[in-house]
Amino acid sequence: MDAYNTINDILVHLFNEIWELEKKAIITEEFKDITNNDMHIIEAIGVSGKTTMSVVAKKMKITAGSLTTAVNGLVNKKYVMRARGEEDRRVVYIWLTEKGEKAYYHHEEFHREMTNAVLNRLDEKEIPVLMKTLDGLSEFFRGYSSEE
């Protein structure tokens, strides 16, 4: 197979493979009550304290309504806490509970293992090439999504 076809094949299949593998790796017995999407919302909320619904919706590139639906489930399952702002009641703050932080770190560990699996196969000279390549791919996706 030539370089073009090999790269095309890898790109076409890689995203779905990562999504499926991630689902199997992170939705364990302990976290069986949430979805892969829920785990990414937990990741977007982060562990640095309170954030707002609007910040998380923007980070995830979803509507506030879609986020509200997902956060309602995460609040009911005790992964997330939510409160309206004291000064401005229109602002809704969210943050992770201890259970949510545990899920966050579990997900982060999967990403660390995935990244290390790639880095461990490369020598020091290859890492900048991979970074440049992935940056170019990322730039393509950002440009493609901004055209819509």
From TrEMBL:
Gene3D superfamilies: Winged helix-like DNA-binding domain superfamily/Winged helix DNA-binding domain (1.10.10.10)
The organism's place on the tree of life at top rank: Bacteria
Pfam families, alphabetized: MarR_2
Record key words, sorted: DNA-binding, Transcription, Transcription regulation
Keyword Methyltransferase: no
InterPro entries linked: HTH_MarR-typ (IPR000835), WH-like_DNA-bd_sf (IPR036388), WH_DNA-bd_sf (IPR036390)
A Gene Ontology molecular function term of the record: DNA-binding transcription factor activity
Domain annotation HTH marR-type: ranges: 1-139
Transcription in keyword set: yes
PANTHER family per record: TRANSCRIPTIONAL REGULATOR, MARR, TRANSCRIPTIONAL REPRESSOR OF EMRAB OPERON
Name by which UniProt lists this protein: MarR family transcriptional regulator
